[in-house]
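#struct-help
A.M.: can someone run this one for me? Single chain, 247 residues.
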Amino acid sequence: MTGLIVFEGFDHVLLDVTQALLPLVIVFFIFQVFFMKLPGQFIKNLLKGMLLVLVGTTLFLQGVQIGFLPAGREIGAFFGGSPYRFFLIPVGFFLGFTAALAEPAVRVLSIEVEKASSGYIRKNLLIYTLSLGVAIFVALDMVRIIYGLPFHYLVVPGYLLALVVMKFSDPAFTAIAFDAGGVSTGPMTVTFILSMAVGAATIMEGRSAVIDGFGLIALVALAPILSVMLLGIVYRKKEGKDDGDGA
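D.P.: on it. Structure tokens below:
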């Protein structure tokens, strides 16, 4: 019986993933037939990779549906309905940090940045910087939900601050920062942290699951932008100091 529950709705998830991947496969084969003419071994490897992506993504999304979403809602509802709801703040910080740390897209971005910069920007430093930024903003969103603060009280000053920080940050870090804002809002963060926020807002008296529960992802997208650009300021100051020492 448990096995049946685990695979409940699996066919719908498989269909959704197949529909998402199919256009990519069709476009590739159009280019292959008319333009690229890549060797057969490359095509075999591509098809193996596509199969792994299909199976892996389907299993991942199925796990999200039956595991992460309900767990996040229950955690949010538990703390939101308790007299110690302020514990949502450190819990949000911890879960925000670990969710960003486990985000596959964050690791891919960090690896690519390290390669492109020839090791100048270390992947682990970037991963922990992103994760810390996400953790702080998830904790701030828990404060917003607990005290019923309007969403624009956080998001408007946050993006204005990002525009100011952009002027002082290293241009390379600014480019990385805005990509980081996109990759940090991946399946781990969205499914687990968002569901926790919605669960907390649902159970709290005077809160709306729609008005107070959502908006978290906009803050999560802002967090890496600020944290990475601040890292760029640190790197710029370090370079200036090294140049001064060298002179």
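A.M.: thanks! Residues 81-241 form one domain.
D.P.: also worth noting: The chain has a mean pLDDT of 88.
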